[in-house]
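## retry 2 of 3
previous attempt timed out at serialization; input unchanged, resubmitting
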Amino acid sequence: MASASGTRDLDKLLLRPGHLVGPNFVPGPELRDDLGETWCCPGSKTWTSSTIDMDRIEVTNINRQFLFRSLEDVDKPKAMVAAKHIMERVSGVDIVPHFCRIEEEELEFYSNFGIIVLVLDSNEARNFINAVAYSFLEYHSDGNPREETMKPTVDGGTEGFKGRARVILPGITPCFECIIWLFPPQVKFPL
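## retry succeeded, writing output
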């Protein structure tokens, strides 16, 4: 996994109890180690991830998105540049970029992930990923979701100067479609 200094924030989440965790949460170093085993390639201990984006970098992205830093990035695929910059900044991370729409990836592609992190600007894309995450969900005979089939989804983003984040646990928390009515109308902010 990452170096000791690189796990400091992760340790704050995984090594102590909190009032916002579920009843099955047991803090401790074993959880952190299990995360490393789940998300890392055996032996290499590198975090593997993918980034998918169909857009190219525009000049307006340079001053408001930290992964795109120079005019040399303009017109390049966002997924490729983001992956490159993250791998330069964080040792032990391997990111596979995909320059396409998220809908173009097969369902099997998404089955390889233990968690899905969204930073989308489209509710249609969020609905698609919501359906993908729920397509893997299976239930026990008592009607409770099988935890090993859950694809937790972290949805975050900004609109103007406002930021938001939510965690969706399929079968436990409301799905994206269940809460879409809470969103304000989408507005594009030319900054």
